[in-house]
Amino acid sequence: MIHSHIAHFYALAAPDFVLGPTSNPEERNILGLVAKVGLEIGSEVIKHRAYAQDIQNVIGGKATHPVFCLPGGISKPVTKEEQKDFEEKARSEVEFAQFSLKLFNDLVLGNQEYLDLITGDIYTMKSYYMGLVDGNNRINFYEGDVRVIDEDGNETSRFKPDEYLDYIAEHTEPWSYLKSPFLKKVGWKGMVEGKDSGIYRVNSLARLNVADGMATPLAQAEYEKMYDTLGGKPVHSTLAFHWARLIEILYAAEHLLELSQDSEITSPEVRTIPSATPDEGVGIIEAPRGTLIHHYQTDDKGIVQKVNLIVATGHNYPAMNISIKKVAEKVIDKGKEVSEGLLNMVEMAFRAYDPCFGCATHTLPGQMPLELTIHDSKGEAIQTISRH
Amino acid sequence: MPEKTLKKNMVMKTLVLGLGNPILSDDGVGFYVAEELKNRLDGLDVSIEQASTGGLSILDLLAGYDKAIIIDAVKTGRAKAGQVGRLKPEAFSATLHASSPHDLNFVTALELGRKLGMALPEEIDIVTVEVEDVTTFSEKCTPKVEKAKHIAVNTVMQELDR
What we know:
The complex is a heterodimer.
Chain A: H1 2-18, H2 30-37, H3 39-60, E1 69-70, E2 73-74, H4 80-109, H5 112-119, E3 128-133, E4 145-149, E5 155-159, H6 164-167, E6 168-171, E7 180-183, E8 200-201, H7 204-210, H8 217-230, H9 240-260, E9 280-287, E10 290-298, E11 304-310, H10 312-331, H11 340-351, E12 370-375, E13 381-387
Helix pairs in contact in A: 1-2, 1-3, 1-4, 1-9, 2-3, 3-4, 4-9, 7-9, 8-9, 10-11
Chain B: H1 3-11, E1 14-19, H2 29-40, E2 46-51, H3 56-62, E3 67-74, E4 84-87, H4 106-115, E5 123-130, H5 143-161
Parallel strand pairs in B: 1-2, 1-3, 3-5
Antiparallel strand pairs in B: 4-5
Helix pairs in contact in B: 2-5
């Protein structure tokens, strides 16, 4: 959670705010950001992202795609030396998360133009929200119940992982290889927002919206500040996903510090070898980009026969379509030149969801598959702009 | 391995990095070439890594080395499948194995790392293999790319020998 959120905020989100949404694209990137805020901050970004990766690497054998999972547990315990290192890094991560929120406060919230952009209509979408919560309705990334709220903040569903098929269904469109999940009880009403549409959102802001609070004190204070500033719960501003992401870095860092101080993490008891043949299992966690569902069914030999995955980007896919359409309709006018800056404003709508479309599978000379086609009132395509 | 390479690699920390997705047919070619190089470079002071990553994560892998040779699949459509080439990072204005909406492209990540004073290799060479199929789930390359693997291995050996 920590390394992913740090990379997304500083490399992809912050340039839009620190440099400006319509600023020169040659500078509107992490290099421009570093030039503006200073090399020292850039070094801290790289350092703290790497700290989080180091911890994953030590625990999981690899930072990305860990290799330590075995049936019934994991392959090796954490040593006392590793625990000490984790604790030092966790303290540093807490400080860095606080610094990042201060930077956001000074550079984004301190700029009325940006605050208006966050709270304005073009980046606002009313939807249901989904995320994991613990028994006290606090955010939990690893276990608990899946809670769903409506646009007014009322809880409409609460379910255990193995009940997910009673609550979530998937719609297919002939023009897309991605399915569109929706709330079964509300139903699929097309790519439309609002309470009558079963479209829901996951990821950082959704997690904060469904929770009654954060499970750590510093993050709780920031949670309260966000909702006070943005007018109470739930917040529907798509750009507020970035703010929520920073609060989640702080929560994750505080929780990391708690765990690093727990003597239980160096216990050698890391695996209970299963004695029964598995038949079916559903696991739900909160990945950086939102709720992640894995469902496996096996035969009588325990060999997997059927798998169903609903990943975070999938949950958010219908909402991304609506968010993009909404911005495009607002910023593109007849006779008005569609500049790169306006195109970037459309892109900001989907970037807020931090989508992951098969990110590790591209080959040279891969390019961002973003193309904007402008149609006239008769549906004729009059201009196409691609971003490479 | 010629003696000169041995001497050179004693003073230079060198990384050979195979990139790709080993379950997506030809996209795994960089991965497989790195695997074959493990035997060829056994006993030499050259690190070999395989990764399915891009952007900032590549910086973590490159840090601390003086020289790096990256092997990756390319699909330009301008060459025959299996054609092996050599490139420098500067050749890419767009991206290298990470055109992801949630990570940096390789060139930007490299420039950032250098600006921030990270200990990144001064010399980076990229060995490319033009590929055909990067969408079929398979742990084998297509025949033309399969045949090109040993050429890519030899190209890396030549790069190490320069």
